[in-house]
Amino acid sequence: MSPEVFVDVFRDALFMVVLMVSAIIVPSLLVGLAVAVFQAATSINEQTLSFLPRLIVTITTIGLAGHWFVQQLMDFTIGMYMRIPQVIG
After folding, report:
1. Which of 16, 32, 38, 53 falls between 20 and 30 A from 23, CA-CA?
2. Dihedrals φ, ψ of 2, to 5°?
3. What single string gives the DSSP state of each residue in 10-22?
4. Which ranges does the record mark as transmembrane (predicted)?
5. Per residue in 6-50, pLDDT tens?
6. How far apart, in Å, are the Cα atoms of 26 and each of 13, 17, 44, 50, 57?
């Protein structure tokens, strides 16, 4: 396996990880920021208040985008199988 092929495979895998994680984390971060601004404006210092909305948004995001996640992972896996001759030879 040449170093260029290894770098391409590693880059594609890293991109897939970043894409999947950011699709789940970004909505949760935005909701957490909104709740934090609300808590700062109202002087409510309850730690569990920010947990539940983030949990609900994270579960909803996984539920709504689950099909897309699976499709992306299937495309990536098929692409990796198609690269086997290039990696070996």
Report:
1. 38
2. -80, 155
3. HHHHHHHHHHHHH
4. 13-39, 51-70
5. 898 899 999 999 999 999 999 999 999 999 899 889 888 887 888
6. 20, 14, 24, 15, 10
Give one DSSP letter per residue of 27-84, joined into a string. HHHHHHHHHHHHHHHHT---SHHHHHHHHHHHHHHHHHHHHHHHHHHHHHHHHHHHTH
Q: Which of 52, 55, 49 is nearest to 36 (CA)?
A: 49
CA 81/CA 78 separation, integer angstroms: 5
The pair of structure tokens assigned to 69 is: 């996640």
**Do residues 87 and 13 lie in contact, with contact meaning Cβ atoms separated by under 8 Å?**
no
Question: How far is C-alpha 48 from the chain's CA centre?
Answer: 24
Residue with tokens 């199988």: 81
Contact assessment for residue 9 and residue 80, using Cβ atoms and an 8 Å cutoff: yes
**What residues contact residue 72 under an 8 Å CB cut-off, 6+ apart?**
16, 19, 20
